[in-house]
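re: that complex we talked abt at group meeting.

here r the seqs, copy pasted straight from the sheet so there may be weird spacing, ignore it
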Amino acid sequence: MPPQLLLATAALLPFLGSAAVICLPGHARNAAALLAGLVMVAALACIGLLYPAVAGADSIAWSLDWLPSLGVQIVLRLDGLSWLFAVLVLGIGALVVLYARYYMAAEDPVPRLFCYLLAFVGAMLGIVLSGNLIQLVVFWELTSIVSFLLIGYWSDNASARDGARMALTITAAGGLCLFVGMVLIGQIVGSYDLSVVLASGDAIRSSPLYLPALVLVLAGALTKSAQFPFHIWLPRAMAAPTPISAYLHSATMVKAGIFLMIRFWPVLAGTESWYWIVGTAGMVTMLVGAWSAIFQHDLKGLLAYSTISHLGLITLLLGLDSPLAVVAAIFHTVNHATFKASLFMAAGIIDHETGTRDMRRLSGLWRAMPYTATLAMVAAAAMAGVPLLNGFLSKEMFLAEAVDNAGDHLLNLALPVLATLASAFTMLYSVRFIRQTFFGPAPHDLPHAPHEPVRWMRIPIEFLVFVCIAIGLVPNLTIGPVLAEAVRAVLGARTPDYDLAIWHGFNAPLALSVVALLGGVALYVAFGRRINANPRGGPWLMDRLDGGRLFERAMTGLVTGARGLEEHLGSERLQVQLRILFLTVLLAAVMAGAARGLDLFAPGKSTDFDPAFALMWLVGAACAVGAAERAKYHRLSATIFVGGAGLVSCLTFLWLSAPDLAVTQILVEIVTTVLLLLGLRWLPKRDAAIPAPASEAARARRRRIIDLGIAGFAGLGLAGLAYAVMTRPAVDGIARWFVEEAYPKAGGRNVVNVLLVDFRAFDTLGEICVLGIVGLTVFALLRRFRPASDSLERPRQQVSHDAYDATRAGRSPGDTAADALLVPRVVMTWLFPFIVLLALHLFLRGHDLPGGGFAGGIALTIAFMLQYMAQGAEWVEARLRIQPIAWIGIGLLIAVLAGAGSWLFGRPFLTASFAYWEPPLLGKVPVASALLFDLGIMVLVVGASALMLVALAHQSLRRTRSAEAEAERVAEGETA
Amino acid sequence: MELVLSLGIGVFAASGIWLMLRPRTFQVVLGISLLSYAVNLFIFAMGRLTVGAPPVLGAAAEVVSVDDPVPQALVLTALVIGFALTALFLVVLLAARGVTGSDHVDGREPHQAEPRPETPHP
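got the structure back, here u go
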């Protein structure tokens, strides 16, 4: 396979594996582990095969255009550094999969764990292989999210949830900073391509944007790598299953921050700000982490703080402005990953086999599990930096750097002392870990009797410990070439001479190392008992400073503050919200008008004044004002006034050459009015005679004045705007094209209809969907409708009619109501076929003359509605079953199929075509496929509007039925 | 004509906005109706006013000076959607009135402190 393909395969495999694993059943522990392991090994093989392509060469890349308009590409880029990290991620990943198979209990949803794990591997590979800054940030955030899922894997555990949330909050916030930082770097360089950025170090460092970019990028790196003061999330992330802690929170994810700092070391480092930020953060983290680790009673807690301390050490190395320190940093990253992962796994085994991780309860496990104890001891020795192990080599390099850099800065002067102190602390907690857990008297009352774990569970530790020893003994034969490639990828021409030998002769670093080792043991001998008896478990001097509690308090404060703001600045009241909304719009309009200097009364064209038109609008305005005045206490007359206003607007359409609008408006007006009338029945009685409380009167008055001002001002503004536009000459827009092409292209003479069903048919499809959805929503709302108690009584007229009927001989209750308006009702009943005919007429002629699907549909609804009004719902439904929901479905189906039909001819969706057809008697008529689409519109409009009206009309029946049911129940009760 | 129509639009909009700012749901429904008339007329007027030239081509389909069809097409669907909006809002207000017992837009009378707790549906 070509290298590029191998690279893409390696990057893609984990995601595919993740998707595949989640499809397995919940108990498929073996299958999930096998699949995950195979994916890891296969991806590792891909990366491994690429080594010859990377060694000695620059880098290989594979790219794909992602957002070409923004210059963003997906680039996979492999060089020595990313090769080393990719191997770490995949190699330790494979071992963790094997370990997790035996660690996880059968009742855990194991496929979910492996799904997340593989997704994490994919994201991590994405970071190290990214050749584009934006892409890197995307994968960076992905690791934060997957880490959240993994920490919260046991989601029924409160501390797991809290830990997951804290980790996500801190690392994702850092990720956002990183994103901005990367955008800044991209702005400075003019490219998001990593290779270009890496070549522009001088431009970046000399840019005025350098400091903000640096701070933001470091905010991302330091939060991810748990540097002080962001380190608080890492100990709490230990609520994750131990394989996850071993993998994410010591070997890989926290190294993403380190990777980022190494990657950008050539372009960002070498300045005072880098030195102070990174150096100080690393130094403080190293000391605080080591100090805190000493006092932990929990095995995983100790390892977590130790991880923080080692991450601090690596960061400190990167902060020193020295190429050799970078070599040491990369080397220690690898070493730390090997010994810390094996220690976590050993701690997991202890927890698994004894049931506790508390060092005060554990002791003497040497007897029960000598094999595991030996492995853990070797790993702990590597961590402490005992000679002949890999930790010793990188720690020597670190101490050498500490000594060499002493001099020019205050930080450097303290460096050898503090570095030795941290090493001594490391020795102290390593000794304590081994001594407390494996030696001493035999353990008693442990949850389980301790014994060696299954063979397979030890294999990952054995392998990692073997690596520790191999690197420690023969560094030049094992890690040497790979490290050289990684260093060369970072430093290029600045690559220093270095020697990985075990023995450098008697020199200052060796002396410091010996001091640290002996000092650590001495400290343990002196203070070990008191540390073990430390009741609170917090570190001395620092146990009052609980970062986690501060974080929680800050989060609570944030929520409380937000609530307070919402309470003071926001309102739940609709009137207030609407008032603010209208005022904002008004303000925006005034500002826009002031900015553009809008001249409302520029002399322009106007049509001739017609007194009849003015008179009509006088009536219209009176109707609108009347409706506004009557709406509170006289709903029926207000409804009539609104209808009057609608009628005026309908006549205006007719007057001003919009017959289609006039037809549709009048039909819509009818159904809207009926709808409002149906609703009136369920509204509470409102009586002007009931006075408002005196305290309210003044406030109500003030509100009315304000509202009147808003309304008047808005109306004036809209009127002015309308006048200003209307008197200006029309812009030669798209209208002409539509008018010219309506007949030749779509075979229709009614341009408005052609626009709706042909040129802009896709919009119309969306609108009829909305209409259908609204119809269904209305139906759904009314199914659960529960009228208020005071609208439950029968209407007064009905009661008095029935009372009258009851007193007369030969009449039964309901007769008067049945006799009311008899003649109009007969007429209405007989109108049915004619209105149906009108509806069909409107529909069929729509393409050429005013009409169309919308108008036809509403006309048909009116035909049905008149029957309901004339004869009552029960009478109609006994004779005619309208199924509005089916109409909606069929209408939508017709419209979509009419659109999809054009696919058969290889044309895009909703391409209309037309032809002429000569049926007998009628002559030549154009038949457009748009007619079918229009049919869909009509059917859907009928369904939706009928559904709304019928559903509302049925409420009266429902009430009667429930009253009847009640009466029956009472009657049954009496007979019983 | 322009002056008359623009004043008419202004009066419709003002009445509609006034009603939308009222406390009772039915007032708001009527307000939305009036405001949508105003907005429809406004959009329609953006095509300028033409008397006696509907955008319907003659029998020979020759292109003559006709009114702008684009605002008309926009308004046509707006009319139907406006009906749906009125229906939806009416039903929501009826349901809210059933649940809260009040036809105030906030679901409670102004002097009531908290909305009435919802009782389970029978």
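couple things i noticed - The longest helix of chain B spans residues 69-100. Residues 59 and 66 of chain B are 14 Å apart (CA to CA).
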